[in-house]
Amino acid sequence: MKPPQSAPGTGAASAAWELLLPAAAAPARTRGRSLQAALREAVRSGRLAPGTRLPSSRDLAADLGVSRGLVTEAYEQLTAEGYLRSGRGAGTWVGAAARAARPRAHDLAPRSPGAHADFVPGTPDLSLFPRSAWAAAQRDVLAELPHQDLGYPDPRGLPRLRTALAALLARRRGVVADPERIVVVSGVAQATALLGFALHARGVRTVGVEDPGSPQHDALYTSAGVTAVPLPVDGEGIAMEPLRASGVQAVVTTPAHQFPTGIVYSADRRAALLDWARDVDGIVLEDDYDGDFRYDRAPVGALQGLDPDHVAYTGSVSKSLAPGLRLGWLLVPESWAEEIVERKRTMDLGHPALDQALFARFLERGDYDRQLRRCQRAYRERCDALVAALDEHFPGSEVSGIAAGLHVIATLPERYGPEERFLSRVAEAGVAVRPLSSCTHPRTESTETKRVRLVLGYAHVPPARIAEGVRLMAQAATG
């Protein structure tokens, strides 16, 4: 079988017809659809350029060894779709409407910088994900899940999961957890966006954020039309005088393990913060991003347990399982529940039901508690390895914050400054780090310091690589 020739004077490349040969050899019942798909792809890809005249249906059918009716039907279908154009007595031509598709999809997911050593905070060890236990839970759920549970879920989440989460949060974090006020969300990011939209709907246009703090909070509230107001953090938590003077009625906090400084809010500061919320009829937004990980003692309970009517509490599995699961929870005061649930409904009609049922199963049979213990052992070892490596290779450095979470703050001796030069040298050596200054709000007046202060993440770095990475960092800094 030879490929059909171009119509006289058209200049159509014979290579374009190669796409049609497999279609002509397809089984009889699918041959027509295959021919249409192959011809459509030839136009989309540009192998048949706009303005190319096609062979007559009789000639193309003869050359491909198929019936003329199949070719005629293909021409008519693609003409109706806009890929081809035709005129009585003028033949069939490639139209100009189609454009070549992009050759591939681009991956915009955040990735490791590809450094020899990566100490950028925020990422857990994804190799610790419990694949076997997760797969077993998935098999069980697929076998037992009622058909109706695959329909649109309650926007708050499956009752089974909300009940299991309420038990978990009450037991591990001291939360006053009513399953009716728990909303299953796509991570803390969606919880933050929901709260931002709810604040905006109530006429609130500003929200206080910790400074230094997570840059993510600023961006998420801004997307909801709410301006983030930076409020300084001292050794006990968010400073109360600036908070009172700011005029805000909502404030975002990380009281169990402040990000990034690593402090725990003192009992007095917690009490003062709740007094402020009651005085202004405001709300405290508690981000418990890594509250399960404390290495020297039991973690401090959540702030929400002290006043459920003035604290909205959120957390996720991003540090304990994997951020790619996009699975978290939001526990809201009763007076906020209806509008938050309605906003969740209009945003996405609820979290995927199968994922919810799977995680509920994972919680119910104790797999999640086992995973937390496994992560805690691994992360404690890596925290100790990082502190030891800093002590060896950066003598005189200070590590601040409590023994918890997935990062430390390291303040290096003055001889390693200034910061800009240090960061440049370390980057050239292939070591990725994050300066504490990157967590300071842009509107905050900077204070020059000769000492380099780093937020160093360790959870995703094996102990041996931690030691080697700190050695490379020291070598670059002194070279």
UniProtKB/TrEMBL annotation:
All copies of domain HTH gntR-type, residue ranges: 29-97
Alphabetical UniProt keywords: Aminotransferase, DNA-binding, Pyridoxal phosphate, Transcription, Transcription regulation, Transferase
Pfam family, one: GntR
GO molecular function per UniProt: transaminase activity
Protein family: In the C-terminal section; belongs to the class-I pyridoxal-phosphate-dependent aminotransferase family.
Name assigned to this protein: PLP-dependent aminotransferase family protein
Organism from which the protein derives: Streptomyces violaceus
